[in-house]
Amino acid sequence: xxxTHLADWRQAFSRRNIVATVxxxxxxxxxxxxxxxxxxxxxxxxxxxxxxxxxxxxPTLLPQEPTLDNYRHVADTVPxxxxxxxxxxxxxxxxxxxxxxxVTTAYALxxxxxxxxxxxxxxxxxxxxxxxxxxxxxxxxxxxxxxxxNTLWGxxxxxxxxxxxxxxxxxxxxxxxxxxxxxxxxDGAGHLKRLWRxxxxxxxxxxxxxxxxxxxxxWNNFMWPLIITDSVDTMTLPVGLNLLQTIEGQTxxxxxxxxxxxxxxxxxxxxxxxxxxxxxxxxxxGAVK
Amino acid sequence: MRFSAAGQPRRVPAPSPHRRxxxxxxALVFFAFAGPNLLLIATxxxxxxxxNVYYSTLNWRMGATSATSAGLDNxxxxxxxxxxxxxxxxxxxFTVVTVVASMVLGLLxxxxxxxxxxxxxxxxTAVFSPYVLSGVGVGxxxxxxxxxxxxxxxxxxxxxxxxxxxxYLDGDLALGMVMMVYVWKNLGFCAVVFLAGLQxxxxxxxxxxxxxxxxxxxxFFKLTLxxxxxxxxxLTVTTILSSMQAFDILKIMTPSGNGxxxxxxxxxxxGFGPYQNAGYAAAISVxxxxxxxxxxxxxxxxxxxxxxxx
Lengths: 289, 310
Description:
Strand order of the largest sheet of chain B: 1-2
Order of helices and strands of chain B: HEEHHHHHHHHHHHH
Low-confidence stretches of chain A: none
Number of strands of chain A: 0
Structural class of chain A: mainly alpha
Shape of chain B: flat
Strand content of chain B: under 5%
Oligomer: heterodimer
Helix content of chain B: 55-70%
Number of strands of chain B: 2
Distance between the termini of chain B: 14 Å
Mean pLDDT of chain A: 85
Helix content of chain A: over 70%
Radius of gyration of chain B: 26 Å
Structural class of chain B: mainly alpha
Largest sheet of chain A: none
Order of helices and strands of chain A: HHHHHHHHHHHHHHH
């Protein structure tokens, strides 16, 4: 090791530098992490505490007698498997159809010749700006009239038209080299074949992004299922938990409520931790050029 | 229609029968691919926008089979009644406070996260994570923390010899509480976007300023912040839009909306909550759409000129 390296080394590990790194580098991050993580940790821990440890003047961090009773109670009060299953069906079916529609619409907007394509695209852009809440009341009337109250299709159907996914995928498809598709066309491949054999495979990362963002959105969706269902047989998990909170009220049954919160938060947390790059790029799309 | 560079309609020779057949076939393919989505968008986005306008002129209770015409009464009520004034006050307070707080805190967090040290990627993930979590779950967690008797916050207050504020009983405290939780959930989004903005600033610019002996604060306010201005504008618009649409945390933490009746929450309470006042809720929907549409259109017109949509 040369003497300049040694000097660098010494400087990097000098007390002053270490203190500066810890105070300037890690301390703010640790502070931010504490604020973000502690509430979630508190939830997870409380979900394993017996009631006596929650209604106490001397709370302890860790459960003294960890128990699964809270989860059992939630399962007894709200038919947990039913609402969990409903949430899974709504999320899987809803997302699958939405992504499929976004892919085909974006393909048509980019690769099919049609004179009024730009008009259609602007109509989709405008739809992108309509807050779902503004459509709540008429959609409730429509779905009720169709007999869709307290049905899973009634929850899924109004959200299927997708402007966000279409928009994102169109931007991606436009970057694909035209020659690639021209060559396939000359080989006699129809539109469907071009879409599934060429466009979709090379756009897989963007499609995955749209899919993940859609899945997270469907899983967390609350307002529409809350309005269109009032029977536990067809409720999704967030609506079921809202019901659980109403039933339990402020009677100090936080153990149950935290068990419910874990059930709705944990799946997304796991998906997010595994796929965060896709989800972040989808949600912050358009933020930075 | 196709336009030439000069903006004049291009002279197109009359299409041959073959060309015309081809065109018709393309149109068919277009609608086979895009039709279902367009039909859904028309039915569940465009049609509701129009029918809301009609509903908003009715004096109509939710679930009732008949309604009487109300003219513009619902709108008048929305802008002149005490209830309407309260809704606007709460909406504006909630929006301004949450937008400013999540952007300032988000920028601070982004500055902290903008360095290369071990564990930084995991930290960034953790900070962003609340943004993707269910608002219902998050609201339940914070209900527990804010509970004056059993919550951890109450214990902290008592440890300092004070008693916990009655967050749920006082309207202003309740609004403060939901704003804090909302900021907690959303500041990670601002942080990640700011981080991306920070990383797009060429480091030699900052380095040059450092060599010119500009202090850290000068570098930040004279260099970093101006270079971040597109990010600041983007975040201002997107967080205004999402704050104005906040619902699940408000519904879970303050179920009947005591002091927390923002425009979307009021829309829910009026249409589907205790009031069953569908005509009034429709008027709120129309106004909500106009406000949010104007904000988005403003953004597209003035900021994203460089982005080509068509």
